[in-house]
User: Fold these one by one.
Assistant:
Number 1:
Amino acid sequence: MSTWESSSALLKESHAPWDGQAVYNKPGRRPPQAAVGYHKAVERKLSVAVLGATGAVGGEFLTLFERRHFPVGGLRLLASERSAGKRLLIRGKEIAVVPVAPTSFDGVEVAFFSAGASRSREFAPPAMAAGALVIDNSSAFRMDPGVPLVIPEINAHAVGPKDRLIAVPNCSAILVLMAVAPLRALGRIERLVVSTYQSASGGGAALMRELREQTGEVLAGREPRAGIAPDPYAFNLFSHNTPINEAGYNEEEWKVILECRKILGATELKVNVTCVRVPVLRAHSASITIEFAGAAPTEDAVRSALAAAPGVRVIDDRAANRFPTPLLASGQDDVLVGRIRRDLSHPSAISLFACTDQLLKGAALNALQIAELALGLPQPPALPPASTPP
Ligand SMILES: NC(=O)c1ccc[n+]([C@@H]2O[C@H](COP(=O)([O-])OP(=O)(O)OC[C@H]3O[C@@H](n4cnc5c(N)ncnc54)[C@H](OP(=O)(O)O)[C@@H]3O)[C@@H](O)[C@H]2O)c1
C-alpha cells in the first residue's frame, strides 16, 4: 500500500474527521443547523495535498480543514526528505509525511503550497499538469500578470473559472489591505505610510524556535547563540531580514508595495513602508497612515466602514486604552484594527493600528478561502474561534 493510500485509509478509519459530523456525533452534541446544510451542499469530497505540511503555515491547514469543514476526502502530506518517516497526528490519527516528488500530485484535486518559492516553481507545473488547483503561499508567482493574487474579501473578482494557479499575497500586504481596502468607499486613497512589527512566526518554525531558545538563554544569564536572524533576537528588534535592493528597501517592503498595487488594481498608489522584525512569537502588527485624495473621512466613518468589513474586528476603546495587540490577534481569523484617529499633521490622512495572526489570515486561512472561492463552495457555517496558543 502506498503512503498515499495509507493516508486515505487512515482518514477513512479515523471516520473522515473532515466531514465535521464526527465532532457532533459525540453524546449530547448536535450538529449546528448551518453545518448540516453546509455538508449537504458539499457532499463531494476532494483529494487534497499540503506541500510544506511540517512547517509553521502547513500545520495551520490541518486544523483549518476541520474548523472550516473543508471537504477533504484524502490528504497527502508533503515536505522534504528531512521529514521522511515523520507522522503528523491529526484528530488522534497519524498520517505519514512523504518527501515531495513531481508525481506526488497525481490524483490530487487541490494542492496548498507552503514550502518556499523554489519548491513552488519546481512543483506547481507538475501539480497543475496532474489536474490540481494550486494555491501558492510563496512569492514565486505573485507578480506574474497571469496569476491572480487574491484576498477574497477584497478582490474575489480576480479569480476566473479557468484559473489553476492562484497566489496568496505576502502576509504584511494582507494585514495592511484588510485594514485599508474597506476605506476605499470613503474616498480615493493616494498614499499609505506603513511600519510593520513582524513576529518570529513570519520567518517559519525555525525562527520561532530561535526566539524561544534565545529568550531562555538570556533569562538564564547566558550569551544567546546566533542563529538564522542576523542580529540577536531575544529582547531586540531588527530591520526585516531579507536582502536590500538598490533603492534601500528590503524584499519584504518591496513585496508590500508591489502587491498592494496589484491587489487593489491601483498602479499609482504610493506606498512608503518599513518592515521590522520584533520579538513577538506569533502575529504581525502594522501602524498605517492613509492619505486620501480629498479631505480625510471622519473617524466615525472610518470606524463604521471597518466594523462592517468582513474579516475585520474593530478594537478601539480609548477610555480603557484597549487596542489590538499581537497576543489578542493570535489564533484569531479576524484582522484586528484600532487606534483610529485623524493624522493631525495632515488634513487628508487617517492613522490606525492593525494586528493579524499572519499564519492564519496572512497565509493558511487566506489560502483556504481562495480554494473555497475557486471551487464555488458555499460559505462555511459560523466558526468557533481558533484557539492556538501564541
Ligand atoms: N510564516 C508565515 O507567516 C508565512 C506567511 C505567508 C507566506 N509564507 C510562505 O509559506 C511558505 C512556508 O513558510 P513557513 O513559515 O511555514 O516555513 P517553515 O516553517 O520553515 O516550513 C517550511 C516547509 O517547507 C518544507 N520544505 C522546505 N524545503 C523543502 C524542500 N526542499 N522540499 C520539500 N519541502 C520543503 C519544510 O519541510 P521540512 O520540515 O521537511 O524541512 C516545511 O514543511 C514560505 O514560502 C513562506 O514564504 C509564510
Number 2:
Amino acid sequence: MPVSDLMTKIVSLCKRRGFIFPSSEIYGGLSGCWDYGPLGVELKRNLKDAWWKAIVHHRDDVLGLDSSILMQSNVWKASGHANNFSDPFVKCKICGKHFRLDKVWDEMGKSAWVNSLIKEMTGEKDTSFLLGWAKKQGKSLAPNLALVKEPEVTLSWITDLNQSWGGPDLNFQQFIGRMGADTNGKARVPCPQCGEPLPEEGIAANLMLKTSLGPVEETAEKVYLRPETAQGIFVNFRNVIDATSRKLPFGIAQIGKSFRNEITPGNFTFRTREFEQMEIEYFAKPNEAENFYKSWINGRLQWYLDLGIKKENLRLRPHSSDELAHYAKGCTDIEYQFPFGWSELEGIANRADYDLKQHAQFSGQDLQYQDPVTNEKYYPYVIEPSGGVDRAILAFIVNAYHEEEVNGETRVVLKLSKELAPRKIALLPLLKKNADIVALAKNIKSDLQKTWMTVYDDSAAIGKLYRRQDEVGTFYCITVDVDSLSDKQVTVRDRDTMKQDRVSVDQLKKYLTRLL
Ligand SMILES: [Zn+2]
C-alpha cells in the first residue's frame, strides 16, 4: 500500500471510530493539537498503565512523581531552556510558510512540486522534460520557482547538469537547488510549498509557551508551560531522597503533559504543540552510569517489542558526537518506521551530572548525594529514558493496522495487544428482536464488564457488527443465538484467527481469564 494511503486510512479510521479528533474542530481546528475520543482515551490509559506497571510497580528501584506543569522561571534558566531552547527556522517571503532549518529537506521530499518533477524524470541526458514540466505542472505547483518563472534562463545555468544527468553522482539537493537558482545562477534552496528561494539565514525562536500567573495582567508573573517533565524530577531529587531514604541507584518516573511551540507540527499526532511524555531520571554512581545506560536502552526497546511492535520496524540510532549536548556522555534513539519514515519514539541519554549541578548552582541548594556508608558526597550521573505517549500510540496504531482478504472482501483489523486494546469483549445478539437472547447477552455483558472493558451492540447485522469490532481491535466477540437459550452456550470469536469456540455460559469467565 502506498505510504500516503496508509496514513490517510489511519487518520480517517481514528476520526471515524473515535480514537483521535482534531482539536477545536467545529471552529476550524487548532494547529498541533489533537483530542483523544472514547476509544483513544482508553488506548492512551492502557499504554500509560503498561508503562507505569513496567517501570514503577514491577521494579524496586523506581519511584513515581507527578510534578506541576507550571514551574518557577529559574528552573528554565538552570536547565538552559530559557536561553537555548530553539529550532532556527526560515519563512518563505511569498507564501509565508515556516520551515525548520534542519527539516527543510525532509519537507522537500514531501513537496508536491518536487514529487511531480521527479515523476517526470526520464533518465535521459536531456533537459527538455524540465521545460515541459515548467510550462505545465510547474505553473500551478511551484509558481515561484526559478525554473517556472524563467525556464530558459534557469536551464541555461544547468548545462553542466547535462553531463551528470542520470549518472550515479547526481545529487538531489544540488539539482533542486539549481531549479531554484537566483538571477546570477547561484543555487538556492527553494520553498517546498511554492518554489521561491528561501532566506539563507535562519531565525531562532524560543519553543517554550508563555503564560502569566495571577489574575491582574500588570503584576502577573510570567511563567512557562513546561517543555519537558524531566525538570520537575530534578528539582524534587532532594525531596524524594529525604522522604524515602533511597540509596543509589534509583530512578524517578513521571508521565505528564508538556508543551512546545513547534514551528512545523505535523505527521498527524507525531509532532504536536501539546503532548504527553513518559520520562525516567535514573540516578547512579558515575562509574556505574555507562552500564545502566546500556541496560536502559535494551529494557526500553524490549518494552515496545513486548507490547507487539514488529521487530523489523524498530531500530536503535546512537547519536553521533556532533549531535550530543556538550555535557552528555551518550544518547540513543529508539526509532520506529512510520509510513513517513524512521522517526524517534524515545531517547535514552546519559546526561552525566549536568542537571543536578545546574540546579544546585542556580538554587544555591546542596543537591549532592551522600553515601550513607562511606559518607562520600558527589553528584550522581543521570540516565534519562524519555518517550512520547502520543508518538507511541501512533506507532502502535500503525503497527496494528491490517487489511486482510476474507471471502473476497477486505477486512480491516486493528491487531492491538491485549494490554493495549481499548475494548476486550463485545456481546453481539444474533436476533435483536428476541427478548430472551437480548436479556442473556446483556446479562453476560454486565457480568464481564466488571473485569474487562466490554460493550453490547445490536445495531446492525452480525457481519457488520464483526467488522466494526475488528476495526477497533476488540479482542473477543461473543454471540448469543437461539441455541444459547437451550444449551446455555455462546460462541466466542477470536479477533486475529476468527476461530470460533462454543463455550458454556458458566465457564465463560474462566475461559476468558485464561486468554486475556
Ligand atoms: Zn513559499
Number 3:
Amino acid sequence: MDSESGVFRLRWTPSPSPTSPLVPNAKADEGQLHANGTGFEDINDLESYRSSSRGSLERYFPFSRTGVTSVPAPRLQPSHSLPKEGAKIGHTSSSRDESYSARATSFEDGGGVFLTWKDLWVTAADKRKEGQRPILGGLTGYAQPGEVLAVMGPSGCGKSTLLDALAGRLGLNMGKTGEILVNGRNEVLAYGTSAYVTQDDELMKTLTVSEAVRYSAQLQLPSSMSISEKLERADLVIRQMGLQDSINTVIGGWGRKGISGGQKRRVSICIEILTRPPLLFLDEPTSGLDSAASYHVMSRIAKLAQKDKSTVIASIHQPSGEVFELFHNLCLLCSGRLLYFGPTPDACQFFAQNGFPCPNLRNPSDHYLRTINGDFEVDIEEGNQGEMSAEKAVNILVESYEVSGTYYQLQNRVLAICYQEGEALEKGSQASFITQSFILTRRSFVNMYRDLGYYWLRLAIYIALCLCVGTIFHHIGHSYGSIQARGSMLMFVATFLTFMAIGGFPSFVEDMKIFQRERLNGHYGVGAYVIGNTLSSIPYLIVISLIPGVIAYYLVGLQKGLDHFVYFALVLFACMMLVESLMMIVASIVPDFLMGIITGAGIQGVMMLNGGFFRLPNDLPRPFWRYPVYYISFHKYAIQGFYKNEFEGLTFPNNQIGGPETITGEEILRSVWEVEMGYSKWVDLAILFGMVVVYRLMFFGIIKALETLEPMIMNQKRQLVNV
Ligand SMILES: Nc1ncnc2c1ncn2[C@@H]1O[C@H](COP(=O)(O)OP(=O)(O)OP(=O)(O)O)[C@@H](O)[C@H]1O
Ligand SMILES: [Mg+2]
C-alpha cells in the first residue's frame, strides 16, 4: 500500500522496451506497492537517477518501492562522424543505425574506460591432437563507459574465456592473439584497475555477510575516507544487493551451511562494487538468483555504471525479458564465434531477417539460445525432427552478421575508439599499508578463531598426543637408560609433533584462494597479506606450544626450572611457525591441497631424516646430505637446541666398564648426540626464528615473482605464436 495515498498499486507492469516502447499508462504510473519480502530496498545513493534525463520513462516502470529501476540504453551525443555506408548494406534500419552511433561516446566526454578487442583469438593446448584448440575465434568488440555489455551464448561457448582474456587472466596453458586496447592503448590491466566477479564465489566462509563486506571496505577504500564512511558504504552496497536481511548470517561453505548460493553471488558483487571500479567484469552475476532478484541486481549495476561512468561487461545465462533490456549491447557467441555484436534491441530484428523470428510471448534471449545451441539437438529417442540444425543456423547467422551494417558499425566504432589515445588507466587510491595489514590481521584472526580446522582441532590433537608422550615417558628419571629415552622424546616433539602443523593446510589453501581473488582485483598488497597472516597466527601458536608443551614437559619430568620450560616452548613455537611457513610456500606453488600436503610432507620427511637423529651428524654422507641439507634442515637446530636445554647441567651414572662413575650432560651431547657445542642453545633458537623470517620472505618473494613472471611468460608465448 502506498503510504501516502493509501491505495494499492501494481508493482509488476510490462517494462518499456527500446524495441516496443510502452505507452504511458496513467494507472500504473500512480504508484506501487512496497517491495516487501524481496529483500531489495530503496537506496539513497541512487536518488539522482530519478532526476536523470530518463526520469520520465522510469515513471512508467514501477518495479520497486521507488519505481526507479529500468535503465534503457542511454542516448549520448555522437562525437565521431561515423561513415554512413553502414546504413546502406546493413540489415538494420537507418533509425537503428542512428541509435547505435548516437550512443557513441568519446574520451573527451568525461573519462572512463574504453575497452576494445580486435580479431581476438584464444587457444588452449589440445593434448589429443598435440596442437592448439581454438576457444575464441577472431572476436571484435568494445565496451564503453556508462554501458553494460552482455556476453551471451550456450554453455561452453567461451564467455568466461572472453572475460578472462579481456581482464588479462588467461591461464598459462592458453594462447592469445589479437589486439586488446584500454583507452586506445596497448596496456596490461594492472592489479586494482579493474574488478572481476568470477564465476566461482571465493569468500571467507566463517564471516558474516556484513563482516565480509565491511572488512573489504576497510581494506579497499582510501585513507581519505573515515572509518564510519567506509562502513556506511559497505552497508549501502549490502542494501543495494538486497542482502539487508542476511547481514548477520554466516557465509558458510563445506561442512557448514550458511547463506544461499544466490546470496553468495551478491556478496561477491558487493565486494567488487565497493570502490565503484571504472571497469567491472561480471561472470554470471545472476546465477542462483530468482528473476526478481536478477532484475534488481542487474538494474542496480546498470545504474551504477551510468552514474559512475563505469564500463561493465557481464556474461549472463537466461536473462528475463526485463533483465535483457537493461543491457546496452549484446555480444552473442557460439563455439567461440561471434554471431552478433550490437545494440541489444536490434538482435531481434537481425534474427528475424535471417529467418529466425522470435515467436510471440517468447523471451528474445531464450529464442537466441534455442536457435544456436546445438548441444542437445539430436533427440535421443526420436531422432531429429527435420528441424534446421543449430550448426546450420549458426553458420547462416555468422555469415550474415559479417556482411551486416551492424558489423560495419562495430568495426567503425572500434576503429574510432582505437584511433584516439586516451589516458592510461590508473589504480585508484587505497587504504594505507598499515591499515591493510591491521585489517587483514584482524580478519584472519577472526577466521582462525571460528574455523575449527585451523587451530582448535590441532590443539585437541596436540593435547592428546602430549598426554601420550607424557604417559609413555612418565618420570623419565636420571638413569643411564634415560639418556636414550630423553633423546627420543625430544626428537619426537621437535619433528613429528611439529609436523602435524601440516593439518592446517586445507584451511590455508582456502585462504590462499581468497587472497588470489582479492589480489587480482588489487584489494591489497602481498606484504600486507604476509604480515596479516603471520601476526594473526602467533597467538594461536603460542597457545598450542604452551598447553600441550606444559603437559609433555612436566609429565615426562624434564629439567626443572622455568627458563628451561620457556626455552622448550619457544623452540616448539618456532618449529610450528616454520612448518606453517613452509606450507605457505608450498601453497603458493602447488595450489591443490592434496598435492600440497604430499609435497609438504615429503619435504619435511627429508629434513627430519637429515636432522641428526636417525643418522648421527658425523655419519651423514658429506656431499649433499651433510652439506648442505643437514644445515638447511630446521630440525637440526630444533633437536640440538632441545638437547642442550635438557642435558646441560645434568649428570648420569656411567655404566661403561672402566670409565668414570658419572657422565655429564655436556659429554653426552658431544659424544652420544654429536651436538655442535661451539655456541649456546640461544643461538639455535635465534637461527630458528631467523629461518621463520627467511621462509616468510621466501613466500612473499615467490608470490611477487609469480606475479611478474606469469605476464612475461604469456607475452613470450604470444610472441612465439605471432612468429
Ligand atoms: N584452460 C583450458 N584448457 C582447455 N580448454 C579450456 C580451458 N578453459 C576453457 N576451455 C574450454 O573452452 C570452452 C569455453 O569455456 P568457458 O569457460 O569460457 O565457457 P562458458 O561460455 O563460460 O561456459 P559456462 O556458461 O558453462 O560458464 C569450453 O569448451 C572449455 O572446455
Ligand atoms: Mg563461464
